[in-house]
Amino acid sequence: MSRCSKYQLFSLVMMLLLIMIHPSSQSRVTQENGVKSAVFLSPRIVLEPGSVSNKFYYNIDFPKGHIAIKSFDAEVVDEAGVPVPLYETYLHHWVVVRYYHRKGVEVAKYHGNLGFHQSDFIVKRNSGICDGSLSQYFGLGSETRKTITYVPDPYGIEVGNPVEVPPGYEERWFLNLHAIDTRGAEDRLGCTECRCDLYNVTKDEHDRNIEADYIGGLRCCYDETRCRVKDGFQGSRRNLYLKYTVKYIDWDASIVPVKIYILDITDTWKKPEKSTATVARHHCQIEYLVESCAVSVANVDCSHTKKISVAFPSGGDVIYGVAHQHTGGTGMALHGEDGRAICASLPIYGEGNEPGNEAGYIVGMSSCYPRPGSIKISEGETVSLISNYSNGQRHTGVMGLFYLLVAEPSPKRNSILHSTDGIGEIVILHNVVGALAVFGIALLVGAAVIYQRRNQREEGYEPIII
Questions:
Q1: What b/e readout covers 94-108, taking b as 16+ CB neighbours within 10 angstroms?
Q2: Strand 256-257 relative to strand 155-159: parallel, antiparallel, unpaired?
Q3: Cα end-to-end distance, the chain, whole Å
Q4: How confident is the model at residue 28 (pLDDT cuts 50, 70, 90)?
Q5: Which of 6-15, 214-223, 343-352, 435-444 has the lowest average pLDDT?
Q6: What is the pLDDT of residue 274?
Q7: pTM over 0.85
Q8: In the 3-class helix/strand/coil scheme, how is the chain assigned residue by residue?
Q9: Angle at 463 between CA 137 and CA 382, to 5 degrees
Q10: Strands 155-159 and 45-47: what pairing?
Q11: Which residue of 47, 84, 107, 243 has the smallest Cβ count within 10 Å?
Q12: Contact (CB, 8 A) for 157 and 68
């Protein structure tokens, strides 16, 4: 081999090594029918059997410019880019948050704590409704591979508008990713549900004592904790990444902006009394406990139902909806003040071994795409949210979040698209390989069934602030 060829080979190897060292660099950008698609890798996530990673990564790679986001999809992959199954690395959740960072004040790009003055860091929250938490623009969990996130035309999530950025700041994004390595786990489900006895912790990450009645949840499976594995199990340490794909288009006047709302089934909001001027706060506790039922002939179904009612902050047309639940979840539904169905989101459980179809795990959630203009929420309307879990066994640290995209009504919309029966047409999309299931009447029937689930004792915990 010639000296030139050896040099070229050496240069190629060095380039590959650099890519591996800096895996967060953008891998490729493509464009189809005017929609651009950018693929990125998160910083390296180091895991070994039983270990937990729950870190914050600031200033992650993201498309630049004034754009409209059309979808945001993600999955966990290894160093070769091969998808990792949930029964090896459980993706508890990932969230991506928009923020403004003061120019000229630099910190480490990826780290667990802010490390700079709070005034240099301004979170640009979504449109609500929880106070001090759930501020993300995007985020899912184990269901991420088979959940459709595409925002239909002519709508889009507007970001990068220079007019919105405070003087002296620039727009950035950070990622929080919570992954649990369950290879060789003594109790795989217990590890994913963050049961405190399996993690052998008595204090949370803020060095506060964990109460005896807190038997599982985020306070017990924080960053660098370990879940119990089987005696003698040996497994290698490995590097993983969150591969995320952002589809977007350049912003123009024809795009209709949508607002992002996240509702939480643990919200403790109560409608204020007319006699008081007090404004009720949305204290969202993020997670809750589902106790097991006492199996009997009269209750063979064993279903746990949690329901809340909250005031919606502003009105508009519902464009998209999807829920986030953990293993054991059987679906969520949102209803208007008059009882009309707004959206129901149902879990897709895996049936095999391959990534995206892992048996026993929620690998997707159905998404609602109402006919444009047919499903509306009025400003201040009290909506009801229902979350259902199968409780043949106890489930700890479960979640019941509901994502909505809402567009403000426009007088230019064609009135023919508006429903005349007050219910409208609702389409549920299941992101299943090779198939697209569409439901209309079935949704209303399913929502009615959800209402019939018996109520059980409800418990909640203090909020986890992001």
A1: bbbbbbbbbeeeeee
A2: parallel
A3: 56
A4: confident
A5: 435-444
A6: 65
A7: no
A8: CCHHHHHHHHHHHHHHHHHHHCCCCCCEEEEECCEEEEEEECCCEEECCCEEEEEEECCCCCCCCCEEEEEEEEEEEECCCCECCCCCEEEEEEEEEEEEEECCCCCCCECCCCCCCHHHEEECCCCCECCCCCCCCEEECHHHHHCCCCCCCCEEEEECCHHHCCCCEEEEEEEEEEEEECCCECCHHHHHCCEHHHHCCCECCCCCECCCCCCECHHHCCCCCECCECCCCCCCCEEEEEEEEEEEEECCCCCEECEEEEEECCCCCCCCCCCCCCCCCCCCCCCEEECCCCCECCECCCEEEEEEEEECCCCEEEEEEEEEECCCEEEEEEECCCCCEEEEECEEEECECCCCCEECCEEEECEECCCCCCCEECCCCEEEEEEEEECCCCEEEECEEEEEEEECCCCCCCHHHCCCCCCCCCCEECCECCECCCCCHHHHHHHHHHHHCCECCCEECCCCCC
A9: 70
A10: unpaired
A11: 107
A12: yes
- CB-based contacts of 384: which residues, under 8 Å, 6+ apart? 307, 308, 309, 334, 335, 336
pLDDT at 279: 64
Pair 69, 159: CB distance under 8 Å: yes
Q: Give the pLDDT of residue 276.
A: 57
* AA identity, residue 245: T
* For the chain, percent of residues with pLDDT exceeding 70: 76
Query: Quick check: bond before 154 cis, omega within 30?
Result: yes
**Rounded distance, CA 62 to CA 414, Å?**
35
Nearest to 327 by CA among 216, 226, 431: 216
Length of the chain: 466
C-alpha distances out from residue 8 to 15, 17, 27, 383, Å: 11, 14, 22, 64
Q: Which residues contact 153 (CB under 8 A, 6 or more apart)?
A: none
Confidence of residue 282 (pLDDT cuts 50, 70, 90): confident
